[in-house]
Amino acid sequence: MRKNLGFRYTLLAMIVTTTLTIIPLLIVIFYSFLTKNSSGGVIYQFSLDAYRTIFSKEYALVLKDTLIITFWATSMTMLVALPCAYYMALSRHKDILMMIIIVPFWTNFLVRIFAWKAILEANGFLNLILLKLGIIDTPFMFLYNRTAVIVVLAYTSLPFAILPLYNAIEKFDFSLLEAARDLGSGHMRSLAKILIPNIRGGIVASMVFVAIPIFGQYIVPQLIGGGNAGTFMLGQQIANVFFNERNWPVPSAITTLLMFVTLIGFFAVRIRTSQKNRDYLAKNK
Hints:
Elements: H1 6-32, E1 35-36, E2 42-43, H2 49-54, H3 57-90, H4 94-102, H5 109-120, H6 125-133, H7 146-170, H8 175-182, H9 187-198, H10 200-215, H11 219-225, H12 234-243, H13 249-283
Helix pairs in contact: 1-13, 3-7, 3-10, 5-11, 7-10, 7-11, 8-9
């Protein structure tokens, strides 16, 4: 009789996951309930001061700016990614287009950000083109504002949105769109009423893959926003508190709170999806 070797096969993966993921998260949660040490590190004394700090007015303003930037950057990314993924799914040159999407991953992230700085700065490429065309008389500072941060965040997040959408659209039965048009539905109406509901899973996955990394961004708002008003995000606040104030419990508390909010959102979506699947199966019995 053949033994069940599934546990043996997954044991190494379980050990690695526990060691590299779960244990560090438990340490972060543990540190969030400790008292800060003025010289750095923590004092092993239970305290809720870190959680009181992150609910202060200062952190509320940073959180508000972070949510605004995350919302607009995610929205811009999805608006660009959806037609791109749709075109890729219908194109004969899928491999070439996929390569174009993946190529940015081959370039260092910091190099891409500095390239955007070279484009947007006062003596950069964009100002040079506008001056040559006579659209502006003096160079305009495109950097260090919220719009620049949102644009660059959308650019860096675009591949993460396109790939799940492309995967969902490629599996879609396009004969449904043809049938809808044969019945008199317009092209855009068919896309909105038939395509979008059927690729909802891909849309949700894309939004999650884009919004969560944007929410914790540090490098883009630091280099493109420069710490100006309206561009300062939660990732920068965590770095400042950790490195400048040498306060370990507050960044740990922020990370813990964000982790639990993310988990709640994940389970809420999962429960909702499961309920819809059960309702669908019940109707089609």
